[in-house]
TrEMBL record:
Organism: Mucilaginibacter gilvus
Pathway: Porphyrin-containing compound metabolism; protoporphyrin-IX biosynthesis; coproporphyrinogen-III from 5-aminolevulinate: step 2/4
Domain Tetrapyrrole biosynthesis uroporphyrinogen III synthase: 318-506
Enzyme nomenclature, EC number: 2.5.1.61
Domain of life (superkingdom): Bacteria
Residues with the S-(dipyrrolylmethanemethyl)cysteine modification: 245
Protein name: Porphobilinogen deaminase
Note: The porphobilinogen subunits are added to the dipyrromethane group.
Family, as annotated: Belongs to the HMBS family.
Length: 524
């Protein structure tokens, strides 16, 4: 290309990083470029939250106007800032690879409490101007106070450093691109399947004039069609909901093996409890429409859900179901009994890791008041065990989030092979994690409780039955049968295996926690 390309960009540090990234990428394919800085409405008005700004595209409109006018040749955007419709005459020519779309929660160290989920002290003040973040935060921590936070990434971090907030939320992509050191804060990384990001978060969009065919073709060298395919789902869901940056909507699509997985969170407003959905599909065709249909106001929910464990009044699962007027029947079909009252503390002398496969194991182990002669690391199976570990004042160094224990075992083995590991647990453990470890790993099993099946379990007339362990399945079906209209959700593949043996179909949640359960109920 014989002309120098003019790239339009906002003037923030992050926007300039993004524009220079595109400039360097163009020069790598022998296209000369220079930057032109353009101030947008979102840059000028910093005293209002996003939902108070009028119209759409308040970080992109001015760039698009200059592109249409011909004063620039390319506009570089954070894709999540773009409205779902291009202005007439403009197209997205290329999208970048996706930076990790996780969120970061930065917490002042003096305001950190690992006993709380997300490690922010009870009643802490968290800064964000995103209704999507606000709704998801309050869903898991309703005690938090949320206050608007505007400005570029360094400015927001500076406000936290000045103690105007106890914690703030940022996209990991921006922090990573700027290479900001966060050692002065406690940092919680919230993965995209746990805390669902904005549609197209972590992706750059390169926008050009539709008639500029030569430039469009040249930019195909920078385009990532696989990312564009996933974004088409996210952006079309946003479009079908008629939303913009103010909508409390998170959508994240990814390809896992040969299937597309889509995670969606939607609330009515920043104060509202979000409904969540997980869908897996072999094809992208019709996927956005399927997702939006699940959120229709007239959709019919099950009248009653049974779950085989106690559910507290303020739990995520209870609030998610009661919001949609679903009755909950919660009763455990088993009971656990402590098996030891003390153990030889010498066991802990050379331990490197302690791994818990259940929250019962955490609870019973710490009732023994263990004293660790050296620093140990903690691994847990699932967020329920992680939360129980937090309540005992410890932070998990490894959290197995998959419903497949073989996957968890492989991930844990990659970190812990060759070390000494203590496994507090049931008196007859399944040993799924232990079996995935190498021969040179020292394994110590410590039975701290046993499981006893309840007798004479009464049937339930609930529409959906959620079983939380193989023992609960066994206890229920000693005396009861599944009714034809009833549907089953099984937590974990070991629980699902019981139903495979029985020839009963079931739904397996994506994650074995209360959020995953709510997603599964919402998706049936």
């Amino acid at each position: 290309m014989d002309r120098k390309i003019i790239i339009g960009t906002r003037g923030s540090e992050l926007a300039l990083w993004q524009a220079n990234f595109v400039k360097d990428s163009l020069e790598a394919i022998h296209i000369s470029a220079e930057l032109k800085i353009i101030k947008t409405q979102g840059d000028r008005i910093l005293n209002l939250s996003f939902d108070k700004l009028e119209g759409k595209g308040f970080f992109t409109k001015e760039l698009e106007e200059e592109l249409i006018a011909g004063t620039i040749d390319i506009a570089v955007h954070s894709h999540k800032d773009l409205p779902t419709e291009n202005p007439p005459g403009l197209v997205i020519a290329a999208v970048s690879e996706r930076e990790d779309p996780a969120e970061l929660l930065l917490v002042l160290k003096d305001c950190t409490d690992v006993r709380q989920k997300l490690s922010v002290k009870f009643g802490g003040l968290v800064g964000t101007s995103s209704n999507r973040r606000k709704a998801q935060l309050l869903a898991v921590r309703p005690d938090l106070e949320i206050k608007d936070l505007r400005g570029n990434v360094p400015t927001r971090i500076g406000k936290l450093r000045d103690e105007k907030y106890d914690a703030i939320m940022l996209a990991k992509a921006g922090v990573s691109r700027l290479g900001i050191n966060l050692d002065e804060f406690h940092v919680e990384e919230l993965g995209a399947t746990e805390f669902i990001p904005a549609p197209a978060q972590g992706v750059l969009a390169i926008q050009v004039r539709e008639r500029d065919h030569i430039l469009y073709e040249a930019l195909q060298d920078l385009n990532h069609p696989d990312v564009a395919a996933e974004l088409s789902v996210e952006r079309n869901v946003l479009k079908l909901f008629g939303g913009g940056c103010h909508l409390p909507l998170g959508v994240y699509c990814r390809k896992d093996d040969d299937k597309y997985q889509v995670f969606t969170s939607k609330a009515e407003d920043g104060e509202g409890f979000p409904d969540r959905l997980f869908i897996e599909s072999d094809t992208l065709e019709g996927l956005p429409e399927r997702i939006v249909a699940k959120f229709a106001k007239d959709r019919k929910f099950p009248l009653k859900v049974f779950i085989s464990r106690d559910i507290s009044a303020g739990s995520y699962f209870r609030r998610a179901l009661e919001k949609n007027k679903i009755e909950i029947e919660a009763r455990s079909l088993i009971r656990t009994v402590r098996t030891i009252t003390r153990f030889d503390s010498y066991i802990l002398k050379n331990i490197d890791w302690v791994f818990f496969s259940s929250k019962n194991a955490v609870e019973y182990f710490f009732q023994l008041n263990p004293t660790f002669p050296k620093k140990v690391k903690f691994g847990v199976m699932g967020t329920g065990s992680e939360d129980m570990l937090r309540k005992n004042g410890h932070f998990a160094d490894f959290v197995g989030e998959s419903t497949d224990t073989a996957d968890v075992a492989a991930d844990f083995a990659a970190m812990a092979n060759g070390t000494a590991i203590l496994f507090p647990g049931a008196d007859s453990p399944m040993r799924s994690i232990q079996q995935g470890l190498s021969a040179e790993t020292k394994i110590i099993d410590l039975p701290v409780y046993e499981t006893v099946l309840e007798e004479g379990v009464q049937p339930t007339g609930a529409d959906i039955l959620v079983f939380t362990s193989p023992s609960n399945v066994e206890a229920y079906f000693i005396d009861n049968l599944l009714q034809p209209q009833q549907k089953v959700i099984a937590i974990g593949k070991s629980t699902g295996k019981k139903f495979d043996e029985m020839g009963v179909s079931y739904t397996l949640p994506f994650s074995p926690d209360e959020i995953g359960l709510a997603e599964a109920v919402f998706g049936i």
